[in-house]
Amino acid sequence: MTTAPQTTDELYQALRENDRRPYGRSRTVTAEELVDAAEQFAEPRPLVHALLELQEAYTYGSEPRKSPVVFARVLTLFDEQPDVFDERLRRTLFWRFKWVANALRALPEVPLASLRQWLAEMRDRYEKAGLGLQPYYGQAYQLASHVGEDTTLAYELWAARTRTNLTDCEACEICERARYHLATGDDERALRTWEPVLTGKESCQEEPARSTSYALLPLLRTGHTDRARALHLTGYRSCRRNPSMSGEIGRHLEFCALTGNEARGLELLAENRSLFDDVDSPLDLLSFLTGVEVLLQRVEHLGHGELPAAGYAGRTWTVAGLRAEVRDRAHDLAARFDARNGTTAHTDRRRARLDRAPLLGSLELTLRTRGLDDVTPAAPAAAPTARAAADVPDTLPELIARARALEEQGHPDAVACWARLRTLVAAPDYAHPDDPAVGPLVQLRADLSADEAGRAGEKDEVGAAAALYEEAASLYDEAGAPGHAVLARACALLPAGGTPAEHAEGAEAKAAALTAAHAALVRLHEEASGLPPYQEARLLRLRATALGLRLQTSGNEEHVAPVFAEVDLLLEFATRYDIVSQVSGALLLRASTYALSGDLPAAVTEIDALLDRLKAHGPAWHLPRTLGLRGRIQLGLRDAEAAHADLTESLRLAADWPSATVDTARFHGDLAEAGMHLGRPDEALRHLTRSAELELRHGNRTDAFCTYSNAAQLSLDLGRVEDCIALLDSLLAEPEVAAGELDDRLVAQLRLTRARALHTGEDLKAATAEFAALAAESADWHDDLGSHAVIAAETAVLLAESGEFGPAREAANQALAAHAQAPRYEQLSNCLRELARLQAQRQGSDGLTDALALLADAGSVADEARAAGYEAHGRSLDSALAYEHGRVNSYAGEYETALAALDKCLALLGEPGPDADHIGEWAECIRLAGAVEGIFLERPAPALTRLDAAVSNLTALGHTEETEPLTSLAARLRDEG
């Protein structure tokens, strides 16, 4: 708070503003300052309001020790000056007796006698005030349950009583009843009791989040796994990072641990790391820590106790270390509660949670299915995991010889050998073999640099790849291996050739760079002498690849023949020396060249011949990539079924090889495309997420996040809103995102999709906050003002939906300013029309002037679009604008103007025909015109004429579904006439 309120009006305004803030330290500190400010006023009522706001902040900020102290001040004011308390304040006072009872139960240092004394005080006060005692008996039951006494009588005394206006809300009472049945072991009855809350029919500030957390395990035990999964996603999002719901978060962690989702559990634990220090309620903390311990215990049991875990601030933790710390703290808390209560209830309940066996081996909770192996820290240069069948010799000389032999063949198992060697060489005690067949250590270091360069190139880290190849070349020179040095320098030319010179832009510059790279490769080849055939074949392969990349970049027909010429040289040479892998490589390049030149049938013919050769002569590891190419070509031929079959087979064969070496991630991505063409979006979504996770595992983080972004959008398009949000929450929590290491525009796209998902999921507050933040950030995107225009426009609509029309207009003005430089006609027109509709609908005639101003801006956008020759992808901007004029004026009571606008819209649309794509828009315009004319203008006869004619027209065209609203309106007009 910048300055203290000087008047009571300012104080009340400050209280209202603070009430809109989320619970947490910021809100609590402000509430404390407002109490100090309220004490300066002579009248006590502002102080009462400030104290009640502070108690609420303490209660929902998980600071139970302070809540009773504040309430004691309010109670004293009530006893001394009861006239200050109007009916609303009086009801609030008596309601909050329950808050104090809850707070005292949460503090083990408060004696049990004091708890009972407070309940006696509550009963006495209620009786003197003539209030029903059902709330008192509810608190008496909760105390009995907390202590671990027999709750049968206490439950009946509470549950059988009639509710009063001070009874907890229906949702909270349902939760208590369900938990009673749960404690008796009756899962089915508990779930039946919970049904109104779990379906959203009953809710409050804490519900259904609290009930959901308790219902997860009973749902699993009764076989309702899909519902448990869905409720986990929605329930967790409602309580994450909230100190007052730390117990609920602990139960979600437990759910992850018991369903084979330990990796997700660790991710959620990291997201809620602050709760270790922010939760001041011992009872909530006990529940949270027990859930954490269940998770950590499970992870350690699976052999991953060395994994990093997010724990108490001030040090780094492993799973095993944090589990020991959490166990000690939770055990101490449980013991303190049991000592206070004179029972063993909390220790017993804690032990029961820790002793639970997993309920499911694996339940796919999110689109991002990860195992503990996926979160194991990897060495910076760690290679992808090789297949189990990879032959990695035990002795060092054999291992080096094996790696070089496999590298010469281009065999995927070389990956595992180089990875093992990299680990051995990096060890402080590494001793290089004194063996002439192995060569000096510098040669091995050159081999490892070349391997690392190849993997960097696969990740499109072209600068790093070129530098590593040059390093390898220098080391080979030092080792006396000139042929290897030539090959390394040749490899360095190709990554560098794929990058245009500084300040160069576009495909033309990249094609020129590749032309220069090819020329340099030819010179290098001509100057080299004494190369063994396999090295010369690789040089020829690089030459052909450079020209193939140039063709792919330029699409120039003149670049086709040079590729074929180089491929023929490679094929002839490889055939002469029987270099099998280069023969198939040349044939694959030829097929790819046919595909790039647009001759897809020829490409298929080439690939079919290559597949026959591979099946007969090998190498087997080329089969998956070749089948994958045929699948992509079939997609180009629009034969999705054939593409799907090829890609599925390529994926099956790829399982025999390290996924990075056969491009398994690409197969999954292509299968996603095939699935979409075949109308199988759910299957496509699975392949997208699998592709993304493989890219992430192989270190291709940008590609992975791009693919995940597509998956998130597809899940949103499919209506899987919570899946979309959970996926994006997981991605945005990745360390490189938080550290700002990922491309900021890609991160913004992830956040934008999340904001749209929140809007679709009707979390308007969170969606508006995210959109507003994105709009502010994108204002500085001077190279992409079009995106800023779209984001600002969507922000404006959300603000208007929240009734904040002033800020909405400001956001719309930002969108218009950006649109002036980077036009987004359709998005801006849609935004402005929607703002006008919302304002007129909410404010009626009072909002008409502002609404018409918005429509005037929409009219200017439509004029600009018409002048620019822009054609809308959806509705015509002009007819949509005329319709909105009709709707806005009807909301404001200007019915004649509205009808004239609707008639204009119908004239712009024209009479519908058999193939008209605006049937729905036309029918809706007829309906609204009929309502305005027949109901509001009280002219039913012409309205019925209009409606009946439209129904006849639509029926004749076969559009019977569109007639239903019209016939319903016509029937109403006839009934009322």
Characterization of the model:
It is built from 46 helices and 2 strands. The protein is mainly alpha-helical and 977 residues long. The protein has a two-stranded antiparallel ribbon. Helix 23 packs antiparallel against helix 24 and helix 23 runs parallel beside helix 25 (533-554).
**Global structural class:** mainly alpha
Strand order of the largest sheet: 1-2
Portion in strands = under 5%
Helix content: over 70%
Largest sheet: 2 strands, antiparallel
Quick structural overview:
By secondary structure, the protein is mainly α. The protein is built from 46 helices and two strands.
Write the layout of secondary structure elements.
Elements: H1 8-19, H2 25-38, H3 45-60, H4 67-80, H5 87-105, H6 112-128, H7 134-147, H8 152-159, H9 170-183, H10 187-198, H11 209-221, H12 225-239, H13 246-257, H14 262-271, H15 275-278, H16 282-301, E1 308-309, E2 317-318, H17 319-341, H18 345-355, H19 396-409, H20 414-426, H21 441-458, H22 462-479, H23 482-497, H24 506-527, H25 533-554, H26 560-576, H27 580-596, H28 600-617, H29 623-636, H30 640-654, H31 664-677, H32 681-697, H33 701-717, H34 721-732, H35 735-738, H36 744-760, H37 764-778, H38 785-801, H39 805-821, H40 825-843, H41 848-867, H42 877-891, H43 895-909, H44 919-936, H45 940-957, H46 964-976
Antiparallel strand pairs: 1-2
Helix pairs in contact: 1-2, 1-3, 2-3, 3-4, 3-5, 4-5, 5-6, 5-7, 6-7, 7-8, 9-10, 9-11, 10-11, 11-12, 11-13, 12-13, 13-14, 13-16, 14-16, 16-17, 17-18, 19-20, 20-21, 21-22, 22-23, 23-24, 23-25, 24-25, 25-26, 25-27, 26-27, 27-28, 28-29, 29-30, 29-31, 30-31, 31-32, 32-33, 33-34, 33-36, ...
